[in-house]
Design a protein that fits this description.
Elements: H1 10-18, E1 24-27, H2 30-35, E2 37-42, E3 48-53, H3 54-67, H4 72-75
Length: 77
């Protein structure tokens, strides 16, 4: 897990992290922090998950661990 706490534009941060080619990127900006949600970007997939409750994301990760899966979008269903 990597976090960027620098005071700079969110789009620049996202662009930087995209270059790392990690399978998933979570964005927690001010709005997400206020609402207790995350936005998830899956590498190689244009579809993003916005407004996902943090508890739901954690459960999705637990399910992927149990099932030895790397498919976040499948776990979301």
């Amino acid at each position: 897990v990597e976090a960027d706490y620098e005071d700079r534009n969110m789009n620049l941060k996202i662009k930087t992290f995209r270059g790392w080619k990690d399978p998933y990127m979570l964005v927690v900006g001010g709005q997400e922090a206020e609402n207790g949600t995350v936005s998830v970007t899956v590498r190689g997939v244009k579809e993003q998950i916005h407004g996902l409750k943090l508890e739901d994301f954690v459960e999705m990760c637990r399910r992927m661990n149990r099932e030895h899966s790397q498919e976040l979008l499948t776990a979301a269903k």
